[in-house]
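Reviewer 2 asked us to include a model.

Predict the structure of this chain.
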Amino acid sequence: MAKIKTSNQSLNLEAEKFLLSQKIQQQKYNISDKDVENIKSKLPDKKYYEFAYHMFYQNIYSDLEQVWNQWKPWDIWDYPVYDLHRFNIIFLQNKEFFANKNVVDLGCNLGYFSLFSLHCGSKHVKGIDARANKLEIAKFICSKAGYDNFDFVENNINNYDSLQKILQNIDTILFSGLIYHIPNHYQVLSQLTKSKASCIIIDNYEMRQYTNSQEPHIHWKYDYVDGDNQMSGFEKNKDKILVGKPNQTWIDSAMTELGWKIQKIQYYESSTGETSGPRVCSVFTR
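Predicted model (C-alpha cells):
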C-alpha cells in the first residue's frame, strides 16, 4: 500500500530540491559558499524579492499591506545562485554607475532592479513599465525596504515624448531584459542617447548561433503580449507583437555609431542552460 505524503513531507521534498538546485548552480557558475554570502551581504534582504514574485505568481496586485502582514518568507528559500551571479554582474561590479546617481530602470517589471539600484546608493530611481499593475508591487517593496527616493511611472518605451521627460536629469540608464522585447532597437537607443545620461547598462539575451559573430544580426519572432506571465513585449490592444533579439555585435555597432564607448562586456549562461543562447551585460559610457 502506497504511503500518502503529508504536507511536511512535501515541504521537505521541496526544500531538498531547492537546496540541491542551489548546489548545482554553484558548480555551474563556479561560485563558492563564501562568494554566495559575500554577494548576498551586498543586496537587500531576500524577502522583498521573494514577496514580489510571491504576489506576481498569485496574480495579486492590491491589498499588498494586508498580504504582507499575513505572509512569512520561506526560511529555506534564498536568492537563487543564478540570480546572485546575474545581480553581481549587473550591479555590484558596476556600483560606481549607481552610487549617488539618478537612475532610470527601463522595463522595471516588479521593481527589484530599482530596489537594487537604491541599495547601491542611487540618489534617485525612476522605474517605468508599460504594465501598471506590476508597478504597485514595485512601489510596495521599495517602500518596505525603507526608501522613498523613487518614482514608478506607467509608460511604454515607444512613447518617445513622455520618455524624454522621464529621462531628464538621468545619469545612468538601466536597460535590462527589455531590448529583446521591442522591434525598434535603433530608434529607442537614439532616444536614450538624446538624454544627458553618461552611462547605459544593457542586459541582453543573445541567440547562440549569432554569438561571437562579427556580423550584426537581429533574430525576429513574435511575443505574445500576455505570455510568460506578462514578461513579454507589450502593446495595448494587441495579442502579439513582432520583436527582435539583437546580438552583441549589433548592439556594439549601434551604440558606437551613436557616440558611446564600450566599457565592459560580460557573457554569462542562463539558469536553465537553454541551447538558444547566453545573456550578455554590456556597459557603455560617454
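The longest helix spans residues 7-29. Residues 1-5 have pLDDT under 50 and may be disordered. We have added this to the supplementary material.
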